[in-house]
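Exercise 7 asks you to align residues with tokens for two separate proteins.
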Amino acid sequence: MEFVGITVLFFDEKVNSVIHGFTPVGHANHYMPSLKAGSIVKVDRFEVSRCSSMYKITDHPFVIRFISLTIIDEVITGAPEINLQSR
């Protein structure tokens, strides 16, 4: 198998939806240290586009793509609690 990038899921607590996020292999090494399993992050400066049905992993019509200007900061205080249990 070939490494093609990093897939993340964004939970929007305000509208109770999940958005697919992706960073291609060319940017993956830059963002990998900022993306830890179970962490809550703030993401600024990203690209939004329609999600191709071929790669669709959520019901949301859009995908968030990290670009060279994307900034990822872990939220340490004031972060919402996410219930990881399935409903």
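Second protein for Exercise 7:
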Amino acid sequence: MKLLLVEDNAELAQWIVNLLRGENFAIDCVGDGESADRLLAAQCYDVVLLDIQLPRMDGKEVLARLRRRGDKVPVLMLTANGSTDDKVDCFSAGADDYVVKPFDARELVARIKALIRRQAGAMSGCLVCGDLQYIPDTRDFCHNNQPLALRPREHTILEALMLRQGKTVSKTALMESAFSVDDELSADAIDIYIHRLRRHLASSSAQIITLRGLGYILRSSDPA
């Protein structure tokens, strides 16, 4: 899953980026409202972490523009003011949740995961593809009830395929879900990660199928 962090405090932003990458999230990070607005108009994210006080366009205006475009991505506001008025303003502007600085790492991660679960709705139990299981609450993969050890980008790509299992996922969509806008990618980056995932799934009935010119699809080889 991919997040956007909009935070102008460079030290805090780097801390959050490192924290969330450690939680197997792909993350883009920008430090001003105008850059955030451009990215949100062009990219799709699973959650947005948005500071209120930003240069070049404040967080409330970024959020207002996002909602006017009809984008329902969950937004977690980062605020330095924990007053009731400030919280009400966040929700009135269209935010889904807020966290007051300074915040605990565990609280931030928990609130992000809660927004993802809320967005997923009915997908709260377990997704199954053959003998491969995905648990949305923890974002863990299991094969035959044993944890599947994956590197962060392998995890993100398999997650994108599992959440859309049975449907074709384009290479572009996988790249957007697994890499930040600043990453320098080779043309075959996704092919390399798909190859690694197929090795992880070699003994599984869950298979990643290549549809040339279209993308990839995750499906079970078990008989229907």
